[in-house]
Specification:
about 190 residues; alpha+beta; Alpha-Beta Plaits; 4 helices; about 55% helix; elongated
Length: about 190
């Protein structure tokens, strides 16, 4: 009988045998994928730069228009401030103030007051004025035989959606010449000018 043969895998080459093909294929696939991602990123960056340049151009155009409008406004204001034009400007302010005053509907005002005014309260005087912006404030003098109806009027004015904050400015008792209690009331009025 012969001795058993042992099979030993020996590589007689100078460098050992390796299985590099799967690693090389995987590396090549990863490199192609990374190149594709790089191309997408470069395209995105270029697109963002173009959008930013377009936005900057639009912003510059708007700023140029704003500067031109400001220069034109300054030129017109300087022209209006000239002594020759001051009278026209003053007259235009006067006309605008008169138009604002006349734009208050007295019919609507008295209709709104009638809705909240108790029957035993008399409206002696009413004077509307602009409090600020287009807010109308009413300065009224009302009279009654006793204070209770006037207190009811103040409550109704406060609750009304047409009228607003109410304040009692002064009061006076009845006299020989005037048999009514008189109250001066200030109330905001929602009729806008």
């Amino acid at each position: 009988m012969s001795p058993p043969r042992v099979h030993l895998p020996l590589n007689l080459a100078r460098e050992p045998f390796r299985r590099d093909r799967p690693v090389l294929v995987a590396s090549a696939a990863a490199a192609v994928l990374m190149l594709a991602v790089l191309a997408l990123l470069v395209a995105s960056i270029v697109q963002q730069r173009e959008l930013a340049a377009s936005s900057r151009a639009q912003l510059a155009a708007v700023e140029a228009q704003l500067r031109a409008a400001a220069a034109e406004q300054g030129r017109l204001e300087a022209q209006l401030r000239q002594p020759a034009n001051a009278a026209v400007l003053d007259r235009s302010f006067l006309f605008n103030a008169l138009i604002q005053r006349k734009s208050l509907s007295w019919t609507l005002l008295f209709s709104d007051l009638e809705k909240v005014m108790p029957g035993s309260v008399r409206l002696v005087t009413v004077r509307p004025y602009l409090a600020g912006g287009n807010e109308v404030q009413l300065d009224m003098v009302v009279g009654a035989q006793s204070p209770d109806p006037v207190i009811e009027l103040l409550k109704r004015l406060e609750r009304s959606p047409t009228f607003g904050a109410t304040s009692l400015l002064s009061s006076s008792p009845p006299t020989q010449n005037e048999p009514l209690y008189r109250y001066r009331v200030s109330v905001s009025y929602a009729q806008k000018l």
